[in-house]
Amino acid sequence: MNTPLLTVTQLNQYFSHQHILKALTFTIQKGHIVALVGANGAGKTTLMKSILGLTSFTGQIYLNGQSITPCHHQALSAVGALIEYPGLYPFLTGRQQLSLFATGANRTARVTKIIEALSMQAFADILTKHYSLGMRQKLGVALALLNQPALVILDEPMNGLDPQATKELRDLILWAQAQGTTFLISSHLLSELQRVANDVLVLDHGQLIANMSMPAFLAQQRPTYELVTNQDQRAYQLLRSAGYHLVAATPIRVLITPGFQLNPLLQLLLTNQIQLQRIQPHTEDLESSLLTMLKTVNH
C-alpha cells in the first residue's frame, strides 16, 4: 500500500454555532487526481481552506507526514492553490507576478513554460487590472502550478474559461500528474472532472458520503438502454405493463436487470406497431451518478 500524500482525520469545522465539516476522514494518494464534488454549500471550499490552514478546525491534517494547522504552515511550501478567485496585483503584468512568486532554479524558464502551456502569451505582459475573468483565472492556475508543487488544490479552475482554454488546462493537469503532481479539484463542470480524476470525494451537508475510485463510483449505477420511438408515451406504458424496469420516460430508459434480453423487447414494440427510431446503451456519468446519490441520501 502506498503511503498517502495527504491524510485527514476527524476534521471538524464550526462557524458560530453551525457545524460546517463533520468528522471528515480520508486520504489522498500520491500522483492521484481527486474530484471533490457536492451541492453548493456542501463544504467543499471550507475543506480546501482547512487543508491550506486558512481557517480554524479540529482534527488532524498531515501532508507528507507534516502537520498542518492554522498556526503551522511549513508543509504548505509544497502546495499550490487557487481558491475561488485569484488575488492579483493590479499594477503588475502577469509575467511579473509569476516571476515574483517563482522560487528555486530555472525560474525564468518555468515562467515562460507555464505561460506557453496555458496560451497566455497574448496578455502575459499586460497589467492584470485590464484582465478579463478568463485571463485572471488562467493566471491564478499558472501561479498554483508554477513551482511544481507536490499537491495542487483548485477550486473552480475552469470558471470563465472558453472550451479551448479548458482543454489546455485539462492537458496541463494530466501532464503535471504524469510528473508526479497530486491534485484536489472542485468544479461544477463534472464532465471535465470525470475526464481527469482517478478518485471521487462526495460531500453532502458537511459529511463525507463517498470516497472511492472514479470507476467504482460510476459503476454504482446499473446501465440502461435508451429508447426513442414514434409513440414514446404508449411505448412507456406498454413496457411498464410488460414488467420492464423503467427509470425515465423522456427518453425512455430501460434498466438492464439480470437476465435481461433485448430481442423480446424489440419484438413487443414491433408487434404493437411502435416504430423504434433510436436505441443505444446508456452508462451513468459523474453528474447523473452524483445526483442519484444525493437524492438517495436526502430522501
UniProtKB/TrEMBL annotation:
<dbReference type="InterPro" id="IPR017871">
    <property type="entry name" value="ABC_transporter-like_CS"/>
</dbReference>
<dbReference type="Pfam" id="PF00005">
    <property type="entry name" value="ABC_tran"/>
</dbReference>
<keyword id="KW-0813">Transport</keyword>
<comment type="similarity">
    <text>Belongs to the ABC transporter superfamily.</text>
</comment>
<dbReference type="GO" id="GO:0005524">
    <property type="term" value="F:ATP binding"/>
</dbReference>
<dbReference type="InterPro" id="IPR003593">
    <property type="entry name" value="AAA+_ATPase"/>
</dbReference>
<dbReference type="InterPro" id="IPR027417">
    <property type="entry name" value="P-loop_NTPase"/>
</dbReference>
<protein>
    <submittedName>
        <fullName>Monosaccharide-transporting ATPase</fullName>
        <ecNumber>3.6.3.17</ecNumber>
    </submittedName>
</protein>
<keyword id="KW-0378">Hydrolase</keyword>
<dbReference type="InterPro" id="IPR003439">
    <property type="entry name" value="ABC_transporter-like_ATP-bd"/>
</dbReference>
<keyword id="KW-0067">ATP-binding</keyword>
<keyword id="KW-0547">Nucleotide-binding</keyword>
<dbReference type="GO" id="GO:0016887">
    <property type="term" value="F:ATP hydrolysis activity"/>
</dbReference>
